[in-house]
What we know:
single chain; alpha/beta; 6-stranded mixed β-sheet; 29% helix
Amino acid sequence: MNIDFENVLPADREHYNTFLQEAVDALHKEGYFVSTSLAPKVRADQKGLLYEAHDYPAHGRIADFVVLMTYEWGYRFGSPQAVSPLNEIRRVLDYAITAIPRNKILMGFQLYARDWIIPHVQGQEAETYSPQEAVSRAIRYGAAIQYDTVAASPYFRYTDEQGREHEVWFEDARSAQAKFDLIKQYNLRGVSYWCLATPSRKTGSCWTITLI
């Protein structure tokens, strides 16, 4: 079972840890393994609602394993950039391995593309779709797919039928291999995909698959 509470108030950090311990104790009696999802922190005292209540050492001690949510740098309401840039993931892992046993760490890997209209307007939402759709659009609009070697992520730009320019960041075999190599380099437990089905605006349906 995965426990994923986000935007927990910093004042509730210890309450969350206590809840987690009680939940794990109860679920272990029923034969369940328990994982938790953690925001991608780069240091223990990182500020922000996403981070402060996520206690890496406590979760690493209590849970059977943890899922690091190493994606969403390219947030759908933010400016265009790689969704899970390898250089940023490294910063998260460098901290995580000091607080959590490596054999308990699953690195998150997103299975979707983000498509922004540019120039980006604050508050404008990027479209989310599958990596396969990203390749299809690149072909349809005759866009050349580029590869950012720092982020280890492919991207391209195209102009739609309304004359609007778009910037798309997604994942392909090269970026996936770079992430798998990183998992081996850090000797982690494995990978956790988010998500098995591309999120739908209508249903919001999404499944997570974890490989351990």
